[in-house]
Amino acid sequence: MNIRAKAIGAALGALLLSSCATVPQGIDPATPVAAAATHAKPSQSGLPPFEQMLAQSDLPPDPAMRFGRLPNGLSYVIRPNATPAGTAEVRLRFDVGSLDESAEEQGYAHFVEHMAFNGSTNVPEGEMIALLERKGLAFGADTNASTGFVSTTYKLSLPRNDADLLDTALMLMRETASELTFNDAAVDRERGIVLSERREGNTYGFVNFVDKIAFESPDASYPDRLPIGTLETLNAANGTNLKAFWQRNYRPEMAQLMVIGDFAPDAVEAEIRKRFASWQAPDAPVTQRSYGTVDLAREPAVDIHLNPALPENVTVTRQGAFDPAPDTLEKRKQDVLAYLGHAIINRRLVRLARQEEPPFKSASIGSEDVFRIGRITRLSVNTTEGGWERGLTAAATEYRRAMAGGFSQAEVAEQVAKFRTSLEDAAAGEATRSNRALIAVLEDFFDEGKVPTLPSTGLDRFNELSSEITPENVLAALKKVSVPLDNGMLRFSGKTEPTGGAGAIRAAWVNAMQAPMTDVSPPEAESFAYGDFGPAGTVVSDVREPIYGIRTITFANNVRLNLKTNDLSKDRVFVRVSLDGGYLLSTRDNPRAVELVPWMPRGGLGKHSADELDSILAGKSVALDFGPAGDSFVSTRVTTPRDLDLQLQLLTAFVTDPGWRPEAISAYRNSLPDRFARMEATPSAAMSTHQLAVIADGDPRFTTAPIEFYQALDFSDGREAITDRLDHGAIEIALVGDFDEDAAIADVARTFGALPEREAEFRDRTAARERSFTARRGPVFLRHDGEPDQALIRVFFPTTDDADPELTATLELLEAVTQIELNQEIREKLGQTYSPGVGSSMSRTYDDFGFFLLNIGVDMSQVPATMAEVDSTLATMRDAPVPDDILQRARQPLLEKYDNALKTNGTWLNLADRAQSQPDRVERFAQYRTRIMSITAEDLQAAARRWLPEGGSVDLIAIPRAAAEPDLP
Question: What is the per-residue DSSP string for 84-120?
Fold first, then answer.
């Protein structure tokens, strides 16, 4: 279900193809299968049973993974893991998706997934989510499910590793497997939610995706079996036909149960046997899935797909035969070589895109499997409006040069260095891979037959392969994997049809493939020109804060450094540099003072362009980013202990000598037309474009200006103010993770600590912190260009900043309560919306500014009823204390999230990054649990009365451009 944020088009694209550009994994020692495969047999996936996949591969799996199968055919994998400690992930995957539906059943796999949350033999309707919330699992974040073309997966993230919670999780998974009820009334209620999900996902991007796959694979099944279904089939669904689909497909031999986390494997295995051994398959045989076919002799064709919001793109594709070879060492070797070939071509394309007047905005090439029926090679070119022919020609030239002339040793070496570094980093962090990372590896196994191997042995195998990684072998592997594009299928998508239409597109490709080629050698890689920033800085203060032991350092030049070492992520160092300024440099007179700052890294450094840096730093775990955030400019990176010094050198070089190159401005300006074209293309886009202007009464800092304003921007406009901050602004650095403290202090001393004296404090900028909330109340209608049935409601209540930690905690708990109430009243009872959302945003930057937000996507016809239900729900919260059960369901997930927060370096980084300039944040975090526990139902009622008063909101409603404004209650 992917509650709250499901990008349907992106999700379908990810489910559709398995790219050979994915970094291959390693090779490891063997582990025995734990149980006999009494019912091991192929299912409709086309993949053999897992026992056979492991047996036919010379890539033994991770020895810590316990594979097994019950006599009824259920597969299971148990993998003990303690990252994060005391937690676990439970997945129940069924080898069933939309490709297993008949024409009359389109959307049923997804509909059944929804119904799994709506009642079973032992869990009454509406109780499953409540049960999990009481135990600390938040709906959406910890309790979810997803349906794709070939699988349906149920997901539980367990915040604790106690036996009772595991028992509950497995009980609910068993209920899903064999005990669901399909009450017609419940189906009718859920239908509205499913239709809402379909409606919200029906955007120009989704329509473009559907057209794309239908053109690329016209004889395959998947373009006609989208997981979301059709209006006709969804409206025809009832308890009887949904149950029939479920009974036919939810069978033990088609299910895989995965438990990854901090549990003893023997105990988990015993619980699995206890819960699932009695599950029996129906007598009917498994229906074999049809993927359709790929026409290898298909005549070249051209497709043109237009929408005013689409960026201009030309894609060239061709399909070839599918390679059914199992996952073996030899196959992975060839995949690595082909990956490097694609990477080199893509590196060439990136270099072209970084020119001051580039032929295209971006371009890429890759080859990937189309399920189990074919293979597709795709050259995709994103161009500026009207620039498609120039872009297509330039990309075609690079493709032809590669296929005809191959690669240089220098190009191969650069990509090998990057690839080896990724393997070295993965191997070094092997012991602390997260539960979810391990789940992803297993999903690749069951989806694609990719053996779940260890990163460390992958590195060993790659090192053994090194002598075979020659330009000749890379080209040979690339040619073997790639389908020739000479007679490619051509697809144009964009705002307006090219002059000459399909004939012009075909002629342009033919000409591009026949044009003379010149040999272009890549530039020689230089050495990094920075590293000496002056005498190392002197530490003048070195103390540890008393609560969490964060070590706080101050250098003589006023640069601050905060350190926290731990072993949560082996071989990882989280780096954050905060520099005074940020959005507070923007004023009413100069509202876009920092607009171009995020684009500055594209200009590289004074002595190296961004493209040169790519080659110079190849094989190093370093990168450059920089952008405004609140009262500071921030760069956040993850590196390794061996590259920490270089990462600090790179960031220091950027602060002291940014490139300011014109190619960064070109890239920014080229992005503007597409950005403006989609500003009102969907309800959410229209809302995002205009909401801040409405609640800020047109304050120019939060209002979108005409495109001409942005097109005229140049680095010269804000360079003086930004350079002043780079030269003088206060700097605070946080380092968190696996590193040596004294070595890190020395690294900072040689880089940021060696700079001339900085300002000691982040500036207050009192005037810049003034931000008002409109006095306007009631509805404000915005217009969008999406579908005529789409509407989006956002209800804004003004609150305040987060200076008072008690109030911040109270409104956060009120947010959780309101979320549960909206889920119950608008999602579950009315069935009118897919994912109502609630948020409390209390500013850390602007004084006395904040808001409490309700976000609800609905059918246009349901706007009045939804607004009435919102008013009714909030009135109930104001009129009476929150019921004890709702309070527990809201509070417990917050407590579990807090209890697990310090098991991840993200939380530690947030605590450390401003531990000196904002020391109260550390104490606030330490007291959070106590504050949440102390909040009573009466406190929440009082907060609702004060901050969510009747008539106290401004209600933004995005409706179709041609629609009449609805009459509201």
Answer: STT-EEEEEEES--GGG--GGGTTHHHHHHHHTTS-B
Cα dihedral sign for 464, 469, 474, 476?
Answer: negative
Express each pLDDT in 551-592 by its tens digit: 999 999 999 999 999 999 999 999 999 999 999 999 999 999
Q: What is the pLDDT of residue 44?
A: 59
DSSP for 783-838, please give it.
EE-S-TTEEEEEEEEE---S--HHHHHHHHHHHHHHHHHHIIIIIIIS---S--EE
The three-point CA angle 629-632-637 to 5° equals 70
Q: Which of 287, 149, 153 is nearest to 221 (CA)?
A: 149
CA 533/CA 749 separation, integer angstroms: 10
Cα separation, 660 vs 608, whole angstroms? 11
How many angstroms separate the CA atoms of 195 and 147, rounded? 15
CA separation, residue 120 to residues 116, 782, 889, 926 (Å): 8, 42, 21, 41
Measured CA to CA, the distance from residue 260 to residue 309 in angstroms comes to 42
Residue 43: predicted pLDDT: 54
The dihedral region occupied by 549, where left means phi > 0, alpha psi between -120 and 50, and beta the remainder, is: left
pLDDT confidence of residue 862:
93
Which long-range CB contacts under 8 A does 799-804 form with residues at least 24 apart? 799/840, 799/842, 799/850, 799/851, 799/852, 799/947, 800/842, 800/848, 800/849, 800/850, 801/842, 801/843, 801/844, 801/846, 801/847, 801/848, 801/849, 801/850, 802/842, 802/843, 802/844, 802/850
Q: What is the pLDDT of residue 655?
A: 98
Please name which of 805, 19, 91, 917 lies closest in space to residue 435, comparing C-alpha atoms. 91
Burial class, 870, CB count within 10 angstroms (exposed 0-12 / middle 13-18 / buried 19+):
buried
One-letter amino acid of 716: S
Residue 950's contacts (CB-CB under 8 Å, 6 or more residues apart) are 871, 874, 875, 878
Stated pTM of the model: 0.93
Among 644, 658, 660, 659, which residue's Cα sits nearest to residue 751?
A: 644
DSSP state of 845: S
Between strands 778-784 and 954-960, the pairing is parallel
Give SS3 for 586: coil
Quick one: 385 exposed, middle or buried, by C-beta within 10 A (0-12, 13-18, 19+)? middle
Q: Torsions phi, psi of 735, nearest 5?
A: -125, 125
Could you read off the pLDDT of 228-250 as tens digits, one per residue? 999 999 999 999 999 999 999 99
Where b means 16+ CB within 10 Å and e means fewer, 326-362 reads: bbeeebbbbbbbbbbbbbbbbbbbebbbbeeebbbbb
Residue type present at position 435: N
pLDDT tens digit sequence for 273-291:
999 999 998 888 888 899 9
Tokens (6 digits) for 242? 């949904």
Torsion angles phi and psi, residue 154, rounded to 5:
-105, 135
| Burial track 834-860 (b if 16+ CB lie within 10 A, e otherwise) | bbbbbebebbebbeebbbbbbbbbbbb
Write down the pLDDT at residue 70. Answer: 97
Rounded Cα distance between 167 and 275, Å, is: 9
What residue ranges in 512-590 does DSSP mark as E strands? 539-544, 551-555, 560-565, 573-580
